[in-house]
Write a structure and sequence with these properties.
With about 190 residues, the chain is an alpha/beta fold. Helix content is about 45%, strand content about 15%.
Length: about 190
């Protein structure tokens, strides 16, 4: 008689390292839409997702690429993350979604990181999400003041080398906070439209 094997093959997404099912189950049990924050090589993608037995339903989707229509071309820095969260909050208002629960997936929860900057943007635009205050980045970092100050401290050669991608997109990094505030204002107005 053959011995029985106790080994079971894990789900494909678990094997590929794409889904932590025990963490996901805890989020799904809440019954609140999940605010999923993901980072690709170039963009920050944020979605409000609702669980359904047949498959999850995306209620609201936005990415940092969509900020271009507001005049923001800097792809994946901390201010971009904040503005992407703000845009998600504006879209959530239009979809009549008031509450969510944060799902950061396999991102490491580093306080003050882009994930929490995205959360702060959504919070500032009216979305209710439970969070720990110390996790959110400070206002100066969110507005890009740290990038601006660093750019001003460099000589012309270093500046051209470090910020070549910004220069190609015709972004004046030394005036980044002005651009940030202008875009933030446009997104806030977007959320007020019904």
């Amino acid at each position: 008689m053959k011995a029985k094997s106790n080994y079971t093959v894990p789900f494909r997404r678990r094997r590929e390292g794409k889904t932590n099912y025990s963490k996901r189950l805890g989020l799904v049990k809440s019954g609140i839409p999940r605010m999923c924050v993901r980072k690709s090589n170039r963009y920050i993608v944020v979605q409000l997702i609702e669980f359904h037995p047949q498959g999850d339903k995306i209620l609201v989707h936005t990415s940092s690429k969509q900020l271009e229509r507001f005049g923001w071309k800097a792809d994946k820095n901390l201010p971009s993350a904040y503005l992407t969260g703000m845009l998600l909050g504006a879209k959530a208002k239009k979809a009549k979604i008031q509450e969510a629960i944060l799902d950061i997936g396999f991102n490491t929860p580093v306080h003050g990181s882009r994930v929490f900057a995205t959360l702060k943007g959504a919070l500032d635009n009216g979305l209710k999400v439970r969070f720990e205050e110390s996790a959110l980045p400070g206002e100066e970092r969110i507005s890009g003041k740290h990038i601006e100050e660093f750019a001003k401290s460099l000589n012309e050669e270093q500046f051209n080398k470090k910020f070549s991608e910004y220069l190609k997109k015709k972004i004046d990094v030394r005036e980044l906070t002005k651009l940030f505030n202008a875009v933030k204002e446009k997104i806030a107005k977007e959320g007020e439209k019904e």
